[in-house]
Known about the structure:
mainly alpha; 2 helices; elongated
Amino acid sequence: MEKPKSKFIFLVLAVLAVSMMVAFSVFAAEAMWILAAITVLIFIGIFGVGFTLKKKYRENGWL
Length: 63
């Protein structure tokens, strides 16, 4: 039986997503709308990677 893969990457992705939410709040408060929009796009990308990775883990029985 195959050993389950490490789930550390999910922690890293969660920390990055929270960091992007904090960065968005700071940029919005400082009226830096271009940087706020960039952080939203990065946040969406991080979420997409996380969901894709979770699907891969689930399909391969690594969870």
